[in-house]
Structures are given as C-alpha cells and as structure tokens.
Amino acid sequence: MTVAGETHRTRLERIRDSSQALARAVDLETLFATLHHELVAALQVETFFLGLYDEVSRTIEVVRQADFETLLPGGTFPLGHGVTSEVIRTRQPRLIRRWSQEAPRAEVQYVSSTPGLPESALTVPLLVGDQVLGVIAVHKYQPDAFGDEDLLFLETIAAQSAMVITSLRRSEHLSTQLQTRLSELQAVLSTMADGVLILDASGRLVALNRAARALLSGGQASIVLGQPLEQQAWGQWPLGARELTDTLRPLLARVQAGEALVEAEVHLERPGRRSLSFSGTPLVDARERVVGCVLIVRDMTSYHQIEELKDEMLSVASHDLKTPVTVIRSQAQLLRRHIRAQIATMDQVDEGLGSIVEQTDRLAKLLTLLLDLSRIEAGRLELQRRRVDLGLLAATAIAEVQATTDRHQLQLHVVGRPTGHWDENRLHQVLANLLTNAVKYAPDGGPIGVAIQTDHSSVSLCVRDHGVGLTHEEAEHVFDRFFRAKAMRRLEGTGLGLYICRSIIAAHGGHIWVESGGRGRGSAFWLTLPRAETDPAITAPRTTTTTVTTTTSGADAEG
C-alpha cells in the first residue's frame, strides 16, 4: 500500500533521494539513522530495525532499533525459526499483512512502548550476490498497512544499503585478523552448551546465545531484547514466574556493584518443574568501570531429578527390602528356637526353609530391579545381542508363569518367524514382567493371550488380559518410574517393572505402549522390535497357536 496521494513519479524521486542519502553514510550508526528517516517518510513505519548476519557464528546482530521516534540499542541473538531467521535462510523477502494469522510465533522480540506484536511487517534481506549481510525489517501495528509496492520499495532500499555496508566493511579500521577473531568468539559463544546472556550497564538484555534461546523461549512468550531482565510488564518472560524475577534482581545488583562472581538458583513450578542455576560476572572497560555483565544459565533440572531418584531408591530400599529381610530373620530365629528346644519337626523345618527361600528370591528380584534402575539412569544399560527366536522365548516365559497359576490360561499365537538380533535375557525379563502383571491384575482368572506378528523389518508382540484395566490417565503414566495405578496399590509391587521394560525395549530401538478400554475392561500391552537387516530367518510365514498348561508343553510349543 503506497502512501495516500503519492504518484509513481514521486515514489521514484523518493527512491533516488533515499539512495543518495544512504551513499553518504560513513558508519553503521549513520546508515541506521538515514534508513530510519527515509522509511518513516516513505512508509510511515512505526518500528524498525537493521540487523547484520554473521555466517560463521550463525548469529544476528541488531545494530539499532527504532520505536516510533525513539532510538533504542540493539542486541545479538542466534538464528532461530522466526521471520527474521526465515528471511536470512531463504534469501527471500517476507510481506506479512496480518501477523496474528500468518507469521510464526516470535521467540525473540524487540523492545517497544506498545504492547503486543505489530500486525503488518516487511522484512527483506540485505544481499550482495549470494551472500546475506543481514535484514531490514519495518512494522506497523494496524493490519494490511503494507502492499507489494511497499515491498518493492524496501527491496530497492535494501540493495543500496547492502552496497553501503560492503563499502563500510572494506574501509573499517579493524584488521581482517581481528574481524576473524571476533567471528570465532561469536562461534564459540553460539555453540556453548550453557545459556549465555549479556547485559549492558543498565541491566538491559543485549545478546544471548543459542542455548539461552532454547532454554528461555518456552510457551507462547518471547525474549525481549533491550528490556531489563527483571521487567515483567511487557512481553512477559517465557519463564516469567515471580521466582525468576526475585532471583535475578539481587543477583544483578551485586554483579553491577562489581562482585567478581555471583551465583543463585531458582526453582520454577510453571511451565513444568524446572531448576535453573544463574552465575554472573561483571564486564569492565579499560578504566575498570562496570559496563555490563555476563549471565551463565544452566538447567539443573536433570541433576535435581537424579538426586530425587536417589532419595526414591533409598525409600524403596528401606521399605520394600525390609519385609523379606524381616521374614527371613523371623523364620531363622523361630527354627533356631525349635531346634534348640528339640521340638522342631521335619515339616516345620521344611516350611520354614521354604519361606526363607521364597523371601530370598523376592529380595534378589528387588535388588535386581534397583540395580537395573541405577544402570538405566546412568546410561549404562548394555545389551548382549545374538540371534533370538521370540516365539520360543515367549513359549518359555509363558510356561514359567503358567506354572504359578491354575486360574489363568496362557495362550500363544505366532504368525511368521519372529527372529532378530536382540538380548535374549533382557527380552525374557520383559516378557516375564508383562505376563506376571497380566496374571496379577486379572485376579478372577481367565485367558491371557500372547500374539506375535512379523514383517520384513520388525516383530510385534501383544500381551492381552481381561483384568482390572486402566483409566486413560493411568495408561499415560503406567511406564513412569515408581508409578502405581490406583486399583493396583493394594497389590505387591515397586512401580519399577514397566519403567525398566520400556528402557529395555527402547535400548533395542523398539517401542512399548498400552491400550485399555478403562476400568474393568482389561489391558493390552504392545511392543515392537526392529529386526536386523541381514537376518536370514525371514522366510514364508507360518502360524501356530498354543495353550500352555505345564512346563513341558510350553517347551514343545514351537516344535
């Protein structure tokens, strides 16, 4: 949309005058001021910024910003997924008539006295051949404020500005070696794992790296360049909880007072539970004056989760291990008293020793679960892969579980040859857990079906029962660590079995999930495992159906 009443000749004259004015720029500040004057006159823009792109570090440096007639400092941020980054990546201009409907969410905003985002925007690249030097972006708060002619005008201005910037760079006093060094430092900053925020002397955010952007630009809010960190009135910090503000304000005051290193930690409940550690150090000039500060932000959530896990493990160990140890001790003491009193019968000794063996097995299983949990959390769950027939393995596991119950009928149905290169012991552990759960959570008995299907690249297995079932909410969390469904808490268990099963299947590159129609409608636990591409056992399908009632018949199921 051209300015009302402006003729084609007037627009050409304006382009000529703007080009002549830009050619007189002696530095980037002058260039910015000239652009601001010309764009306000030609397009009545309300906000505007000039950004330069560093290809080595993949960062965008906003030279200056303009909010109506107010000139504001710039800042630096890493390439992301917003409109500015899109224009740099594609080298194509972008005309936005209604920002709220067309544009992606803004992860990084620019400070403004007007709340909200502009509705109309023009963003064009500064190009010299195939090289992108940066962008020019202009905005107005009313929708449909710019048209195709305005975009063409801004592209013409951008082409002239790109030539001016190239000329300025050639005549800059900085040596090529120093420019390279600055790019290297920007590259190091952008690739750091910790978040880095740089503030000026007044506490305004002027630069951040890629990690800080990812860490802090969550939800629907945005990081605001040029705004003090503790200011919450506009833009709303992505993690804009009061806890964050209350932590940053005294930290920044101490850093700005010249303290060498200040550290603080904040725990946020929304969005999601997170723990962030901040450490700040002042930036000083040649006269030892504080001109800003650097904040390092580290996500400590995982560290605290590990600490909580340790506490949970100790709680499980002290609670669940206490019962078998107490039973073993009491049975041993009872047998000892009876033997000393010479009143012990062989039946009493056999019964007591049997109880001790049973509780010892339970103790060993609990210790194995805790050991597996510690391996999983430490990332040390190792697999011993070899060629495994999942049908034979399932038949063996079914026979073992069938021997423990007379109220359930475990049935195996296999289609194809379910072979692959997996860890046999770990898969047996998964199958035993799923089958034991199916028996435990179907207290009225009935059939339990195990179905295995194969295709060229994967094997699928389903364990289906007709027991207590799961609600939708329970099904979402049933694989979480220490989770126990409400209807299952009266039954024995640690809440670790399915969590470990999921980790084992994930280590194989597979997936495990549950389906349930709700309370009282049973459950179906599914898992898929990828097969090795060179597995020679992929042949014509075969189908077998087996009802296992004893260990012998189970072992012969695949015969």
Report the helical percentage.
40-55%
Q: What is the H level of CATH, i.e. the homologous superfamily of the largest domain?
A: Histidine kinase-like ATPase, C-terminal domain
Number of helices: 16
Q: What is the subunit arrangement here? A: single chain
Question: What is the CATH first-level class name of the largest domain?
Answer: Alpha Beta
Strand line-up of the largest beta sheet: 3-2-1-7-6-4
CATH architecture descriptor of the largest domain: 2-Layer Sandwich
SS strand fraction: 25-35%
Tell me the span between the first and last alpha carbons. Answer: 80 Å
- Round the Cα radius of gyration to an integer and report it: 34 Å
- The overall strand count is 21
How confident overall, as mean pLDDT? 78
CATH fold-level name of the largest domain:
Heat Shock Protein 90
How would a textbook summarize the main sheet? 6 strands, antiparallel
What structural keywords apply?
about 550 residues, about 40% helix, Beta-Lactamase, disordered N terminus, 4 domains, 16 helices
What does this protein structure show overall?
This protein has helices at residues 8-23, 28-43, 83-90, 99-102, 148-171, 176-191, 210-216, 242-256, 301-320, 322-340, 346-377, 390-402, 424-440, 472-477, 497-507, 551-555; strands spanning 47-54, 59-67, 70-78, 94-96, 108-110, 120-128, 131-140, 195-200, 205-208, 223-225, 262-268, 274-284, 290-299, 385-389, 408-415, 419-423, 446-454, 458-464, 511-516, 523-530, 543-548. With 559 residues, it is of the alpha+beta class. The longest helix has 32 residues, at 346-377. The strands form five sheets. A six-stranded antiparallel beta sheet has the order 3-2-1-7-6-4, sandwiched between helices. It has a six-stranded mixed beta sheet with strand order 19-20-18-17-15-21. It has a five-stranded antiparallel beta sheet with strand order 9-8-13-12-11, sandwiched between helices. The protein is built from 16 helices and 21 strands. It folds into four domains: 8-171, Beta-Lactamase (2-Layer Sandwich), CATH 3.30.450.40; 192-299, Beta-Lactamase (2-Layer Sandwich); 304-377, Orthogonal Bundle (Helix Hairpins); 385-555, Heat Shock Protein 90, CATH 3.30.565.10. It is elongated and about 115 Å long. The protein starts with 7 loop residues before the first helix and ends with a helix. 41% of the residues lie in helices and 26% in strands.
